């Protein structure tokens, strides 16, 4: 009897999710932290909506994308496949200002805000979407921090984090939730995440509700949790190394 491809994929994802959960639990225990302190974000970029739907079946409610064009369509497909699931979608990739109006239609959180101009564009987009009845409430955002000073890879400079946080915090359409970063290439992730922890502490001191620290991916989530991450963004370890974009 031929195995149902959907059931086979569900079993693969269930095993991967269990393994990732164990890694997170072990990393939290090693850091003396509660497992409840760290949110798992499933990064479904390049994988089909059917995989995202299966992850919601397995209890994962936080999903992320890094390209607006793919994400909007995928979020709509998942809503059709699993009308009751209502996953929380996050934008984690670099975002151009001209995509702001589109991204606020599907994302509940944008983790990659790295400039005042982008923050302002998102605020205007949220206001327009609210007026059009396309969304209610503010958009949650994180300040993306460049940990190596190479802003071409995304992120604002460490010395500019406070000013950007101030701008976001005083914008009614946006809700400052914390900071996000990607460990630089060629550097020990732990050392980089220690710098992020200091920036997060400064932001949190001024805005106690902005306590989120999004750091750590498939290869370095353990180090990120050791340095205070409250959100790990996991794609490869959950879904595999290759995927086909949603049609």
Automatic annotation (TrEMBL):
The modification N6-(pyridoxal phosphate)lysine is found at residue 45. Residues 17-242 form the Alanine racemase N-terminal domain. Keywords: Pyridoxal phosphate. InterPro entries: Ala_racemase_N, PLP-binding_barrel, PyrdxlP_homeostasis. Gene3D superfamilies: Alanine racemase. NCBIfam families: YggS family pyridoxal phosphate-dependent enzyme. Pyridoxal 5'-phosphate (PLP)-binding protein, which is involved in PLP homeostasis. Belongs to the pyridoxal phosphate-binding protein YggS/PROSC family. This is Pyridoxal phosphate homeostasis protein. The lineage of its organism: Bacteria, Bacillati, Actinomycetota, Actinomycetes, Pseudonocardiales.
